[in-house]
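Narrative of activities, Objective 1.

The group set out to show that a structural description can be obtained from nothing but a protein's sequence at a throughput compatible with the screening campaign. Below is one input-output pair from the validation batch, recorded exactly as produced.
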Amino acid sequence: MTTTKTPQSCTPSIAGDDGEAIPETVESPTGSPVADTDGMSWYVACVRVNYEKKFMLAIEQDFQGRGLPIEAWVPTERRVVVNSRGKRCIREFVVLSTFVFVRVEARHLNDIRFRPDVYKMLTMPGKKTPHIIPDAEFNNFRRIIDTGNATFINRPLRKGDKVRITDGALAGCMAFVQRIQGKKVIIGNELLYIGGATIEVDRESLEFVREGRSC
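Output recorded for this entry:
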């Protein structure tokens, strides 16, 4: 099978999770409502290659079966491929190999961290505890990916003007200018030490959030 787009991947360069254990979790009664709470944060679980979607389903079923709150996300993109019969079709591919984003309460993090199918939790250089991704930073990144028009890159983005999109499906989303092409502007966002996503928007749909390089 051949594809019309070369699969992209992102291999983490972060040190393994060898830090202190988080205090043991306290399970909720089985059957209790699975509700969002203010104490939930985004983390990254690292699993084996091509196991990302299966892992996401497994932890969702595990948590929901015990009435525990959880949200999980695996970034994907659709690509046109040619199957073994020579027919073109659209298939979904994972764009961040081995990474599964999970949003849980800190007291339940061990229920993911110490699973046998989790290689490690993502940590920052020199740190021992699992890295927490700020909600606003994560939501901006996810909104760009979820448009289906983003280009994913597995390297940190260049610094530029911070802008806010003023209309359309991404209204209110903030990102940084990467490149200017006439009336179009390439903007992007990143998750520190993980990767970034860019998208092309109309120049007139942007407003500056702070001073920077001139457009």
